[in-house]
DNA sequence: ACAAGTATGCACCTTTTGGTAAGTGCCTAG
DNA sequence: CTAGGCACTTACCAAAAGGTGCATACTTGT
């Protein structure tokens, strides 16, 4: 709650990524990744089909794709029991858990400022319905 | 560093946004927003042209657009001195500062795990050059 | 035999996002 | 009088992200 600039560990002069924040955001950007991380961090549903139903609006293609990326990024571990019918489940790796922990302040911020954010996004939606001609 | 699931304040049953994390990410998603936030949080360049040059690869259109969104989201304050030639500068609002603070753990995480993340992204780039036929 | 469930894969399309290039109005330097 | 900087704006495009729907191979339930 202080008003001084936080001592971010960002360094835009780093190679590849402009800063640590940039790297992190690239890893979690994906429409459903936060939710996936959320469910896995809660020890919630872990089987593919369960996740699929828990998230509801996601399509198979995208859910699979995002799980694969999270796996490739070393945040999620995929376990294929090689049974038939197929059984696969997903869980966070140690790295995934540490990321989930780093996300806590963002969750908190979002929750605390949800009202403001929601209001603005509602207006944005209104604009797109056309207008702003004058 | 604990291994238990962090007590995220996410609640996917909330209206509009699936959780606080979702709201936050929507507000900071934009190719250059993290950098903008970074510079402003550092008390770095604040005038439009300075930001423009500091970021280098960004185009006018997108930089302006992202600044506008950040402003609409209440994170950034735009000050137009109504001088001629034009002089405008940007700074973080209290809300922006609080967000920047919440981002610190993400910066740290990204910096600490940059090696792993970079490796994976390098491989992703390799894949896209074609392959994975066998 | 047939529908349903399991975890995906693939082709195709739409939406969103970002980028390019040019133009605006006004002022100062040469 | 032209060039350039300032802070944008606009029209047009390309790439990325996400969504839809069908297909697979096998099993269980009816």
In short:
Two copies of one chain form a homodimer. Chain A has 134 residues and is mainly α.
Q: Key terms for this structure?
A:
DNA-binding; Arc Repressor Mutant, subunit A; mainly alpha; two-stranded antiparallel sheet
Say which CATH homologous superfamily of chain A is assigned.
Answer: Winged helix-like DNA-binding domain superfamily/Winged helix DNA-binding domain
Strand content of chain A: 5-15%
Helix content of chain A: 40-55%
Please identify the oligomeric state: homodimer
Determine the most extensive contact between two protein chains: A-B, 64 and 63 residues
Would you report the number of β strands of chain A? 2
CATH structural fold name of chain A? Arc Repressor Mutant, subunit A
> What spatial form of chain A do the alpha-carbon principal axes imply?
globular
Mean pLDDT of chain A: 86
Q: What Rg of chain A do the Cα atoms give?
A: 18 Å
Distance between the termini of chain A: 40 Å
What is the CATH first-level class name of chain A?
Mainly Alpha
Q: Which series of helices and strands of chain A comes N to C?
A: HHHHEEHH
Main structural class of chain A: mainly alpha
The low-pLDDT segments of chain A are: none
Total of domains of chain A: 1
Count the helices of chain A. How many? 6
Read across the widest sheet of chain A, the strand sequence of neighbours is 1-2
